[in-house]
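User: Reviewer 2 asked us to show a designed sequence for the structure in our supplementary figure. I'm pasting the structure tokens here. Could you produce the per-position amino acids so we can include them in the response letter?
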């Protein structure tokens, strides 16, 4: 009996050792994608959606710091958000370890590029370069020096070195020029590729416009650091396609719905879920910002923000909150206005923007005022203000815009034209691009009257200039992150912050 068992074990061992792995694959799901079977067409829609989601939903902290948001009255003090004592744990999900953090999105864009090289589908290479230019810009604008060329090698380099922010910016401009050249070469775009492009449907001219507009944004961000971008502007001009223009925002064509997992990300983050249950009672429009509109008869606040669900005074439907202010007994978030109103998204099924015509026109207005672009700065500025009203679907948009432009937003009456442009840009982008307000405030100091947190424990601290590197970097990439020196969000600046 013992001999039979030994023979059986031996026979089994011989069978197992002689079988290939495929012999055991009888339960493999042929419909489950693997890295080998994934094509660029599968990756692109998610990359575009997650990029838009990051830009539209992840910067409430920046909105709070720059006067857009206050704390809902149902909540007590939130530290370190309100006392500016920033630690490595604060906002560490901006870095990695989530499906929507920048390095995760960028790794997906890199995988898409690798797959495109295998199939010689150069269109996806161009798109990947544009996405990387956006993502790395955000990372530099939050952290300054970050891993760049070694950052997306995953297991091949688990401890990437850091590169200087200004060097990364310079290379991003190179990558965007290469993207433009790819799109200008008219790569072949199949029906499947056009369908996968949920931003422009394979429209190469629109991709060139986006690349141009992103290039201009990089130049504007570092306008005080590199003040004469003649060569880069010449490349944009030579492309010939221009920028994202009025009435032609870059919007995702994905269909959102009030169903589980299908709700517009901005609506889901700041308003309600698919069942209509409120998802954000913490963020409320700041009293400072609301007063900027009301005091200037600027009707946009009725489109940018929501009426209070239960105002204390029924005759005052829009109510602001104080960032860092004390709790008030008997006052609740329901008594104050939500930060996202019907002009931005009115339901979970509304479309999602990627890069708005409003922001593009304000970038062009600043560039024209600086003498970088030809044209009339006043006209471009006024078109940008008008576009804000139209984008929000304000009733009688042009008339309302003209009234504002004749009064508080008047070009001819402004002693500082650049300040006027930035202040109106600021008033055009709440909850549309919160991050841009933080960039503009750091690089130029406008608006000049952004209030500090009312939290009594700020102890002389000011609006932070940057974030701390996340704790994960100190745990797993210590040598490279500590090589960046001692970081203090109160004094350590992004390279373009020279003022």
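Assistant: Here is a per-position design you can include in the supplement:
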């Amino acid at each position: 009996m013992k001999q039979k068992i030994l023979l059986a074990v031996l026979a089994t061992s011989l069978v197992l050792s002689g079988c290939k792995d495929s012999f055991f694959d009888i339960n493999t799901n042929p419909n489950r994608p693997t890295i080998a079977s994934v094509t660029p067409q599968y990756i692109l829609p998610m990359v575009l959606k997650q990029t838009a989601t990051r830009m539209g939903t992840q910067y409430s902290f920046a909105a709070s710091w720059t006067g857009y948001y206050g704390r809902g009255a149902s909540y007590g003090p939130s530290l370190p958000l309100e006392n500016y004592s920033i630690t490595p744990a604060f906002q560490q999900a901006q870095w990695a370890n989530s499906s929507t953090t920048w390095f995760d999105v960028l790794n997906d864009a890199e995988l898409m590029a690798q797959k495109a090289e295998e199939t010689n589908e150069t269109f996806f290479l161009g798109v990947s370069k544009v996405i990387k230019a956006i993502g790395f810009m955000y990372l530099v604008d939050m952290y300054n020096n970050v891993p760049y060329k070694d950052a997306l090698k995953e297991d091949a380099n688990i401890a990437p070195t850091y590169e200087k922010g200004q060097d990364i910016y310079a290379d991003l401009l190179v990558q965007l020029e290469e993207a433009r050249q790819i799109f200008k070469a008219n790569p072949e775009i199949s029906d499947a590729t056009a369908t996968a492009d949920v931003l422009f449907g394979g429209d190469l001219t629109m991709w060139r416009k986006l690349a141009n507009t992103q290039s201009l944004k990089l130049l504007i961000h570092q306008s005080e650091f590199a003040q004469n971008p003649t060569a880069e502007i010449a490349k944009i001009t030579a492309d010939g396609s221009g920028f994202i223009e009025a009435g032609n925002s870059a919007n995702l064509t994905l269909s959102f719905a009030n169903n589980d997992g299908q709700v517009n990300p901005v609506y889901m983050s700041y308003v309600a879920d698919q069942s209509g249950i409120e998802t954000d009672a913490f963020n409320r429009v700041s009293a400072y910002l609301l007063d900027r509109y009301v005091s200037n008869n600027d009707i946009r606040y009725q489109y940018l923000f929501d009426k209070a669900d239960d105002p204390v005074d029924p005759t005052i439907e829009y109510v602001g909150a104080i960032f860092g202010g004390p709790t008030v007994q008997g006052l609740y978030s329901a008594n104050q206005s939500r930060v996202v109103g019907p002009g931005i998204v009115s339901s979970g099924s509304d479309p999602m923007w990627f890069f708005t015509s409003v922001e593009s026109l304000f970038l062009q207005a600043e560039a024209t005022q600086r003498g970088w672009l030809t044209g009339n700065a006043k006209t471009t500025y006024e078109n940008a203000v008008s576009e804000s009203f139209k984008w929000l679907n304000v009733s009688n948009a042009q008339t309302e815009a003209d009234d504002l432009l004749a009064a508080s937003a008047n070009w001819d009456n402004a002693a500082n034209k650049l300040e006027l442009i930035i202040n109106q840009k600021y008033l055009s982008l709440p909850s549309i691009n919160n991050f841009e307000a933080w960039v503009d405030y750091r690089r130029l100091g406008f608006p000049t009257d952004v209030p500090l947190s009312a939290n009594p424990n700020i102890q002389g601290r000011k609006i932070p200039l940057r974030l701390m590197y996340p704790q994960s970097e100190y745990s797993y990439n210590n040598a490279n992150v500590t090589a960046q020196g001692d970081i203090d969000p109160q004094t350590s600046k992004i390279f373009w912050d020279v003022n």
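For the response letter, you might also mention the following. Residues 122-143 form the longest helix (22 residues). Confidence is low (pLDDT under 50) at residues 1-33.
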